[in-house]
Structure formats: C-alpha cells, structure tokens
Amino acid sequence: MSETAAIQGNPEGVEGLVEDWASDKQTYNVPWGKAMMWIFLVSDTFIFTCFLTGYLNVRLTTTEPWPLQTEIFALTLFGQSIPLVLIAIMTFILITSSGSMALAVNFGYRRDKQKTFWLMVITAVLGASFVGMQAFEWTKLIVDEGIRPWGNPYGAAQFGSVFFMVTGFHGLHVTGGVIYLLIVANKVRKGHYDKKGYEIVEIAGLYWHFVDLVWVFIFAFFYLL
Amino acid sequence: MAYVPLADQDHEQELHHPHSWVEKYVWSQDHKVIAIQYGGTAVLVGLVALVLSLLMRMQLGFPETFDLIDPNAYYQSVTMHGMIMVVYMLTALLLGGFGNYMIPLMIGARDMVFPFLNMLSFWFYLLSVLILLASFFVGGGPTGAGWTLYPPQTSMAGTPGHDMGIVLMLVSLAVFIVAFTMGGLNYVTTILQYRTRGMTLMRLPLTVWGIFVATVLGLFAFPALLVSAIMMMFDTLLGTSFFMPAIIESGTPMDYEGGSPILFQHLFWFFGHPEVYIVALPAFGLVSDVLSTHARKNIFGYRMMVWAIIAIGGLSFIVWAHHMYVSGMNPYFGFFFATTTLIIAVPTALKVYNWVLTLWEGDIRLNAPMYFAIGFIFTFIHGGLTGLFLGNVVIDLPLSDTYFVVAHFHMVMGVSPVLVIFAAIYHWFPKVSGRMYHEGLAKAHFWITFLGTYAIYLPMHYLGFLGVPRRYYAIGETDFIPASAQTLNESITIAALIVGAAQLIFIFNILWSLRNGAKADPNPWGSASLEWQTPDTPPVHGNWGDKLPTVYRWAYDYSVPGAKSDFIPQNMAEEDVEMEDSAAKGA
Questions:
Q1: What is the model's pTM?
Q2: Chain B contact for A44, CB < 8 A?
C-alpha cells in the first residue's frame, strides 16, 4: 500500500504530515543521515539558546555597567576608528560561505564531482578565514584592550566571560565544520559517494548553514544589543 | 532518484561483521553487545552508589557506633550517590542498556542506523564513569556540594572537593552528555527511519515509545546541563562570575562579583526535571509490556498511553521551577509552576489507571517480573501522591529540604524505576542469555526489596513532617525534633542494610543462571511483541537471519477472542492465525 503511495507521490499539507507519521518503515522520506543531522541541530539549538539566555541573565544581574561594544569592537583603519568593521567582514565571509555551500549541494546532486569538491573547499577556506579573523579579534581584545574572561577595564567582568565563552564555542563549531567539510570534500573527489548518493553533501551543508545561522544571533546579541 | 526506505534495501545494506573476539565483544558495533556493556557498567557503578548510601545510613542510624565517615565524606557520599544513581546508573541503564537492546529488536531492524557512533557512545560513557570515579582519588576527594551542585556552595572552601572534585565532576558530565547525544541520535533516528515493513508508529510496543520520547527529552534537556557545566567550569578554573555573586568567605571577600546563583538553578532544573522523565518514561514503557504479557491481556488504552507519554514529555519542560520554590525567585513563578506541575499529574495518573485496568480480569501469571511490575505500581502511586503535596507552594515551603522530599523522590524516581529495571531484567533475561533465571531466588529478592523499600521510605515521610532536615551529617539534639526520631533512623538503617544485602541475591541469581539456568524457550512468556520472534535465542548479529520480519498487528494481541493460542505474534499474518472451529466462521 505504502509502496504505491510512494510511487504516486506523497500528499501535501496536513494529509502529507499524517501520511508521513502513520507510515510503516520510516517517518520521513529522507535518508537516515539527514534526519539524524536535523535532530542533532535541534539539540544544538538548545545549547546555544541556553548560552544566550545565560548571557542575557548575567547582563541583568551584574552590578557594574556593561561595556560599550562600539568602542571595544572598533578597528583603527587609515587613522580612523571604525566601529564593528572587522565583525562586518567576518559576518560577510561566513554568509558568503553559505552561498558556496548551497552551490556545492546543487552540484553534488548533479554528480559533478569536480565542482562539488572545489565549492566545498572554497566553503572550508572561507570558514577557516573566519576562524583566523576571530583569532585576530581575540588577540586584539586580549593583548591590546586587556579584556580577560575574569575582568576587563571597561566595566562588567561578565562581558569578557560570555564573549569568550560563546564566540569560542561557536568558533569550535566552525572549526569542526571546516574539518568535516574537508573530509567530505576529499571523499567526494575520490568518488566515494558514487554508489551511496550525494546526500552527504547536503547533510554537511545543513550543519554549515546552522553554524551560520547561529552566528547571526551571536552577532546581533553581542555586537549590536 | 527516488529514495528507498532502509527496510526495503535490506540486502544492499552492509552489516559490520566482526572478525575477531575483540571486535565482537570489546570494540563491538552490535547493538546487543553494546547494550550489555552499557548495562553492566551502569550496574557496577550503581553498586558503588549503593555502598555509598549504606555508609550514609550507618552514620545516620548509629552515629556513635560506626565511625566510618566524617562530615566531609558524608557530603561527598550524598553527592556521588545522587549523581551516580540519576545520571550514570538509571539514565545509562534504561537508555544505553534497554534502549540499545530493545529498539532494533522491537522495531524489526538489524541494528542501529549508525553502529559505529553507537559504539563510540559506549566508550565515551565508560570514559565519563572513569573520570567520575577518578575524583575519589584526587586531593580533596570528590565534590560534596550535593548532586544539584548549587553554587556558590560548590566553590567555597568549606565544601569538600571544591577544587579538583568539582572539576572532574563537570568534565565527567560533559563527556557523559557527548556520549548520550551520540547514542540518543541513534535511538531517535533508528525508531523514526528503520522500522520494518508494517511496523507503523502506532504498532510500536510502549517500551519503544517510552524510550523514544525519553531520548528526545534527553537531547533537548542535556544541553542545559552542558551549558551550566561549562559556565561553572569557567567560574572554577578561570575565575569568571557567571554563578558567583559577591561573597565573603571566612572573613575575606572572594574574587567574584555580579553572578547569579539562581541562573544555575534554572539551567540545572531545566535539565533536571526532564531528567526525571528521561528515567521514568522508559520505565513506564517497559512496565507496560511486562504487565500486558503476564496478565495475558492487551494493554488498556494503548493510544491514550502513547499520548500520555508524549504529553508528559512536553509538559516536563515547563515544570522545572517547582524545585525552586524556596530559592528566592519571583513568587509569581510559583503559581505558574505549581499549576503545570498539577497538570502533569493528569497524564501520569491516566497511565496508572490503565496499568491497573490492564490487570483487571486478566489471566495473571505471577512470575517474578510480574511481582516487580505490580510492586512498581504500588511504589509509583505512593511516590506520585507525595508529589502532589510538594507541587503546591504552600505545602512545599515547610516540607522543602526535609526527609519528606527525600522519601518522595526515592519512591517515585529511585525505587520505582529500579523495580521496573528488575522486572525487565528478569522478563528479558531468557531472550538475552538463552537461559532461565531461578524463580525462587527472584521472588525472594522481590519480597525483601519491596517490603524493605517501605520500611525505609515510609518512616522518612514522618521524619519529614517532624522537620528533620535532609543532608545533615547528624541530627544532634534540637528543641523541635523528638529523641524518638533517632529510633526511626535506626530502623531505617537496618532495613537499608538488609535491602542492600538482598541485591546480592539478584547478582548471584543472574551470574549463576548465566551458566546453570535451565535452557529457555525462545518465547517462554508467550509474548506477542517482535523481539521474542527472532530466529535464534539469544539473537545473533543481524537479528533476523535472511529476511526482515513483516509486522501485521500491534504488540498486544493477547487472549484474542476466537484465536486458539492466547497470543498472536506481531509478525503473524491474519490468514495464518489458527482460530477455534466454532469461532472461525464468525471471524
């Protein structure tokens, strides 16, 4: 019965939802890896939500004033102090990498190994440069501005604590993502997925887009708020 | 390219076949071996926690006679006993042990969808246990902050293990969460995507439903614990002030300012309350199957049972602050959380009614698993009713931090899941080992444990009403606690020692039966669910031989009117069911 349903195409909307959940064999018409990645990402969302909730909470409880982000995150270029310039570039790079990742997924499904491989490498390189710039930002904050996790000269000590903790945790996610992308890209090049199918590129892409999406929230909460 | 479900590409799937003893039993990717590794480790570490509790009881019952532990060791025992039992024993045993063993067999799969990740999950779990146990051997010993690890207490010099102990505890928890996430992703995805032909979600045994929802809860609740552990680690190691307010320690101000201890409590209980149901829901599922099988009746209200599990799972995320009525949070919160807490009692009570109604007019077979399952209904009702007391703010305030609370949560999430675990171990032992356990020893084990439970925890409710505070090394002499409280304490300790010793009967029974038990039937209880229909007992690698089973019915076709046998296996087609002659025409 369900096999004929699969041939005829799945019903849309609420009926489709009911059909999905009432079917035997599997709930979603996707490979298990993709379902697993989605569930993992929901779980990871809870981690970042807890981090951001914790951040907002300590920002309320701390007794000292919160430092001014526009001053701290300014970069002096050509003799002028420009607020948020580095972070704007970093955000731009990360969003761009999402674009190249989406292209890689597309070429993956077209089984164009060459283009998929190079687009994934480009994505990984953009990700790595993001991490590099983050390292630069951290160095500047620690060495030049004297901001430490346990205190800083600008105001509430919690500013440094949450900043290093959350951006660090996100940076680890990006680093892990870069490694993951490179491993998958290498396997793509070797033709490892010719038989299994190229869903893995999309799965890696899901993770990458998630990391970007989280960055948008971190950017808004830490640099703008 | 059309996507083909896993169950339909059975013969293209490559199973990881072990080639050596080490691959088969140590670095195993077989869900059944991993389950036994998980279960064995959990039982061993649970025994450590049991011994710790007995040490505490001896101190409380006979403070003058035994001089085994000093106040610091007492607090360390409280902490380690609680944390080990809740996280490293119950969670690991129910999800890592039973989850791993039951899910693929009950849904008709060959293994988990990602066996390698499953193997990693166990090894990370073992690592977390080793890190935790290592804290016994570092300077200062394990942390003594109570299993809730509340700051600022955790970091103050007066608390044992405030330096190394707490760090090891937090690292161990983080590693455990990684292990749980790897296992949990596997369980959820396997249940959703790897069911065999005909196994719709509404034909799943309740065990699978319980484990499924509990794992989803775990995947959403453990992040809060991970985050609070990371923040606390920063507070301890880097000197940040996430949870530490400005505070004075023996006359000198500590180097903290502006943190929020209540933030930790919120994060901790946002994990901690779902955790209660992470332990309870698999137990609910397992006990439903045991009750139904041994009562020879279908489970009463299957659909309601499933929806109750889902409702409890959802509600468990909005009740957490009922652990914090005395924390100093906004009192208006208390009203909201008291309401949700009482609402969550509705689906829970529904489940209890359905268990009792499953027994109603059943053809009950009083085997040892059934003893434990019925015992569970008793302890769970008693523990649940005291939960209604504590869920109300005004009643909770005087009872908070007394032995009433200790009695409540030990009845409802200590003893109850443990009784289910015993029921489940006895119930599935024949399938797992291929041998029968010793029935007489199992029943002796039941009676001592069950009656002992009441001897231990009923008096504690009374101690709580007297106002005896929990976590005290010794009560000493006070104006408000009568001297007779000490006699109660003595009797509790004696009962606890007897119950503790009785667990040796269980261990002996299992170990002895592994070698000397009578050979078991493939399906000794006449159970209808799929895990009893494997071609081999115990099931071999790959579970199902050449061909995956096809499922035609739900897991509870017991005593079907007109059918010759009093159960119809899930994989028996309608036309193969033998009917009694007179009823055949009607059917």
A1: 0.95
A2: yes
Which residue has tokens 């434990």? B372
- The partner residue sitting opposite B195, judged by closest CB among A24, A40, A162, is A24
Å from A80 to nearest chain B CA? 33
Q: What is the Cα–Cα distance from B423 to B111, expressed in whole angstroms?
A: 24
DSSP alpha helix (H) spans, B26-70: 31-61
Look up the domain containing A3 and give its range: 1-30
Instruction: Clarify whether residues A8 and A63 are in a common domain.
Output: no
Between helix B31-61 and helix B484-516 the angle, nearest 10°, is 150
The DSSP element (H or E) to which A83 belongs, if any, is strand A80-83
Dump pLDDT digits (tens) for A26-40.
888 889 999 999 999
Domain shared by A208 and A104, yes or no? yes
Q: CA of B390 to nearest chain A CA: how many angstroms apart?
A: 27
Residue B26 makes CB contacts below 8 A (sequence gap 6+) with none
Q: What residues does CATH 1.20.210.10 cover in chain B?
A: 24-247+254-291
Which domain CATH number covers A71? 1.20.120.80
pLDDT digits (tens, 9 = 90+) for B373-396: 999 999 999 999 999 999 999 999
pLDDT for the residue numbered B285: 97
Categorise residue A185: left if φ over 0, alpha if ψ from -120 to 50, beta otherwise: alpha
Do A9 and A112 lie in one domain? The reply is no
Structure tokens at B172: 């161990």
ipTM: 0.93
Residue A201: partners with Cβ closer than 8 Å, 6 or more residues away: A104, A105, A108, A109, A116, A120, A184, A188, A193
- Paired strand residues for B258: none
- Quick check: B449 and B516 in contact, CB under 8 A? no
* Alpha carbons A221 and B9: distance in angstroms, whole number: 47
Contact B7 A62 (CB under 8 A): no
Contact between B413 and B279 (Cβ < 8 Å): yes
Judge whether A4 is closer than 8 Å to chain B, CB to CB: no
pLDDT of residue B68: 81
Question: How many folded domains does chain A comprise?
Answer: 2
Interface contact flag, B197 A197, Cβ < 8 Å: no
Q: Say yes or no: A13 and A36 in one domain.
A: no
Asked if B166 and B232 count as a contact pair (C-beta separation under 8 A), the reply is: yes
Rounded to whole angstroms, what are the CA distances from B277 to B52, B108, B311, B384, B392? Answer: 24, 26, 11, 13, 19
Which residues in chain B have Cβ-Cβ distances shorter than 8 Å to A27? Answer: 192-193, 201
Q: Just give the CATH number of B24-247+254-291.
A: 1.20.210.10
Indicate the burial class of B283 (C-beta count within 10 angstroms; 0-12, 13-18, 19 or more): buried
Judging contacts by C-beta atoms under 8 Å, the chain B residues touching residue A64 are 257-258
Task: From residue B301, give the alpha-carbon distance in Å to each of B214, B306, B361, B417, B448.
Answer: 20, 9, 15, 22, 33
Residue A150 and residue B240: Cβ atoms within 8 Å? yes
For B421-472, the pLDDT digits (tens) are 999 999 999 999 999 999 999 999 999 999 999 999 999 999 999 999 999 9
Smallest Cα distance from B129 to chain A, Å: 23
